[in-house]
């Protein structure tokens, strides 16, 4: 199999196919970013309940997890370009349908939930396709660099998407969904220009039938579970992500229930995005020099400290400050963890490994919305912060006392370490 990014040096955009890949991936992300904040507002508006809004996010998470279990195997067994086209086309049609229904006054909470569950199911099944294709475009040697660039790009898109979505929502509740449909349509067009190199499909991928599919699925999970490093990292990061996801949901629900203006809510996402972009600039410069193990431990500790202001105040300025502090280290965290795991994963197992890792992490985080919705009224915002903060601290401690995680080196030495 030819890997297009094997040659070092020069901008990534000079690599064949990288511009088309980057455009398709960015536009798919843009489609999600435009309606991300609107989904929260619509769920609360249509249901009129914080608890129902919390369960709304949990059900979407479950739909993504269920389809992601088989999604990685599906991705590894099929042409990546066709799957990117399918994801863009199906999601575009779903958002277009939602916009038309709302414009016609026919969108109920139940129908809204059903359509969102459909988009979440597609997300779980196909969203890993662009990431699985990335290593064939840039090569393992430049994967950490590409991951750092993606982190900054993601922050920039979300930073622009949230206020833009809020602005469109103010004009018309249907407008953000039409905008998302347009972004997915443009992603479809971009993917038409993508020409990925031929790759070796898993043995038996040319076969059809449940038995063949299950063999590939079990082979991928077996490979992941045989790595004590991956298993340890997933458990530790899963606990940390549950606390972080729940905190983000609680902050959003707290602002929505307090009647915070949609534009002000979007400002929180803007400052988080700006902080993440700044963190990405730093990450791109130091990611190759930071040991993965101690880097992850330090970032978890810094994140725990970043949540401390919420113990003293849940006012809007405190929320903005916490959003900045906890967003700064995200790009480095992603570059270290994703860079190490997926640069060392065989190309023919990229989809299955990503699905296994992300499914497990999402299992930890999928219940965060329901937990936030149920606990906030019961123990209050400050009590909720204490519980979630304890989880993040526990995760950092588990990582520090785990020799497999603690000993992971910086990227120049990754070739010396086995997964």
As residue ranges, the low-confidence spans are none
Distance between the termini: 22 Å
Helix vs. strand class: mainly alpha
Radius of gyration over C-alpha positions, nearest whole angstrom: 21 Å
Written account of the structure:
The protein has 419 residues and is mainly alpha-helical. The protein has one domain (15-190, 211-416): Growth Hormone, Chain: A, CATH 1.20.1250. It is built from 16 helices and no strands. The protein has helices spanning 18-47, 50-76, 80-103, 109-126, 129-138, 143-171, 175-192, 210-225, 228-257, 262-286, 292-306, 316-327, 330-343, 350-366, 368-400, 403-406.
Structural descriptors:
single chain, mainly alpha, 16 helices
Task: Provide a short characterization of the protein structure.
This protein is mainly α. The protein has 16 helices and no strands.
